[in-house]
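Hi R.,

Here's the chain you asked about this morning:
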Amino acid sequence: MFKKLFLILFSFAAQAAAEPHVVHSDRGGSLAARLEEISRIKAAGEPVEIRGRVCFSTCTMFLGVPGTCVSPKTIFGFHGPSRGGRRLPRKNFDYFSRVMASYYPDRLADWFLTSGRHRIRGVYKIRGSELIRQGLAKACT
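And here is the predicted structure, written out as tokens:
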């Protein structure tokens, strides 16, 4: 009886873990909050589907979660870390830039560290279709 109950519960847990985390339009937010959210998603083994109109700032960090797919129509917006739109002190700027970049595929991380992070006001926009074309993301089906 116990074994049967365990198998049923395990089956439900496995099904729940397989449910995707769907990202709708997301303009980013707190780096600390996003790191916490991504940590929970990874621990649960949830794939991520980025399907909204936009995915800006810290939302782009979902690109590094295993199993993430993107809509070709989503516009991704990249900029460097800041506090309220103001540049951080150099040491903090470098540190938090590297934290963000560690969540990107390697080539995207390289671009971010050499170019993308230097924009503080506004964002560099890249369509999901371009990320897919360059092999930096897979398309959602």
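One quick note: Residues 2-18 form the longest helix (17 residues).

Cheers,
M.
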